[in-house]
Amino acid sequence: MATLSPLPKLYFTGSDGLPLVGGKLYTYAAGTTTPLATYTDSSGGTANANPVILDSRGEASVWLDNSTYKFVLKDDTDALIWTQDNITNGTATSEYASQWLTSVSGTNAVVGSSTYSLAAYAAGLAFRFVPASINTGAVTLNINGLGAKNVLRAGGLALLPGHLQTGSVHTVVYDGTQFTLQNPSINPARVTVASHATTSAIWVASDEINFTGTETITDFPDAPKAGEWRRLICAGACVFTNNANIAVQGAANYTAAAGDIVTIHALTTTSFRVDVQAASQLPVVPNATTSVVGIVELATQTEVDEYTAGKVPTADLLKTNLLRNEQLFTATGTFTQPTGVTKVFVELAGGGGGGGSGNGGNYQAGGYGGFSSGWVTIAANQTVTIGAGGNGADAVNTNGSDGGTTSFGALISATGGGGGQAATAGANGTGSGGLLDLSYTSPTGLGVFAAPGAGGDAGAGGAQGIGSSNILTLGTQPSAKGGGGQGGYCIVRW
Asked: What is the pLDDT of residues 416-430, one digit of tens each?
């Protein structure tokens, strides 16, 4: 691949645009008045005079080593024309971009050596190195003994513990005043902070903090800049107060439990947002003044209070689909407690009663199975018993049998619907143990029928069992068998 040739000789003109005959080019180490040699050819074997005297065409052969230079151009009477600092040769510039530091040592006061004979730091110089140790706080870097300079991260902030990792290649770029770390570790070491009130405690610590404080938090120390964040892994009960300076998720005070992960976002240096990931895996739901996609609003403060107590106050919340796991039981079995889960949301229904059979139009339906739902606390595996649908009457003037009770351990249950009788509809089952316990309205009289022997009417997804009665025909009304009730079900969500 061909490339453009550099200038074989330097050429200078005066203010009149004519060749600067007899002009003088003084060369110094960058940022200083210390003379620094240039060379007559690429071998670097013969140094130019300093200053370099321009020939009759205003030209000179000027070859640079890997140092950084300052050029000062004057005319033949030593009148200044211009000064240009921080000049390097093209090879040096490209090599600096991938230049390695060797003999790296130190934890926070890092020292390294460059193979280039740097006379001074220059803006734009970049270096790569592998730290000798994981840093434990703010870092300085001293290359070739030129002096320690701060190493900062984006935004001009000091490094946090663990931003330099052994075994990782880190790149720093000098901006004329300090070094900026281009690739801090994304998993800095976690540190322990006992209290948020210690001056800037959470901001000078790591991105992730073992937070052992148990106080009521009404404010945070000023953040170093907007956009900063810290993730606190709480060790005990501390209260995050929702106020003008702290916007707590759910727009209400939050009492953390051990294992809760609370993330602090600096909206400005003095205002913050608090997001919560509860160890219990229960979602934190906002009140009715807040609208969040995928979360149904709570209508009243009472409902907010009930929810924070671990309850589900309204039927609408059954549709929120907030929980990530679900297990459906349509037959008796065992719910195995997932690791770390102490609360589950249970929805269940008892079996429907069987339809009765009679003569002369006395065709009565079995009762609906009861329904219950709510949060329950578990400490072990739970036996799930599914209530069977009641059998329909198979002889004239006989009753259908009752539906069975569905239960989740001894914590929540729903009884089955009563069997339909020859002249009376079966009683509806009832729920027990949930926040939402229902007894549905069952068909009565001759209002609902199913074909002889048919089961009860099933709702979408296996709804509560419904008892059914025998068929009604016009004219003569023959006897017929009652329909069987629908079996119960249990859904567990967490």
From this structure: 888 877 666 667 767
